[in-house]
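Researcher: Sequence of Sulfate permease family protein follows. Predict its structure.
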Amino acid sequence: MAIVGLVESLLTAKIVDDATDTYSSKNRESRGQGIANIVTGLFGGMGGCAMIGQSVINVKSGANSRLSTFSAGVVLIFMIIVLGGLVVQIPMPILAGIMVMVSVGTFDWNSFKYIKSAPKTDAVVMILTVIVVLMTHNLAIGVVVGVIFSALFFATKISKVEVISEEFGKINRLSFNGQIFFVSIDSMMEQINFEIENSTIELNFNNAHLWDDSAVDAIDTMVRKFEEKNNVVRVVKLNSDSRKIVSELSQLNENHLN
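Model: Prediction complete. Tokens:
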């Protein structure tokens, strides 16, 4: 619940920043909420976080500073302590109606337009998160499911590496575009023609990045297979981080690296 509360607070801060054309320190907000919840727990109180609905209604009502939040808290305490006997007499249907109007006022109706134009993966995550929250009545579960599917879609997206093959006389250049790690290696290797013989093979990583030992092992495998066909192999244009991991883990020598 601490994670869910933090996510909701950061989302609320982003919405309020956009509405008021201001900037807030997200790190300070996170630290403040964490410290406040720890102190509250020591006194037997309940943890809390920023509320999107109340914040949006507050801003739409003309609030533009932290004084509005403080005032809302003071009024709430006053109503509970001083006017508690009157508040409990308010019929539940009236409170339900107020909550419905708050929902109507804070709902972003442009979300329906966004679903039509957004990438399919984003739309699926959005709809799936809403469905899970409604079915489980648990925001935490909905957030976790949304994060998991977002991570899966992201991993699938970056797992596609493009290999462009070009021939310049006796030189065959293979240019790699994308993020090379354990997930993307299979699709990358399938695009390479290892039947080239008696040529110079240039493996160009100008638009690629190596992330792990599996990526380094894939390069070693490529070099070995090409050299078995009497080719001269050069690995060129590795960025500094990729070159560092290759120098630490690879079996290649300096003749291969340019």
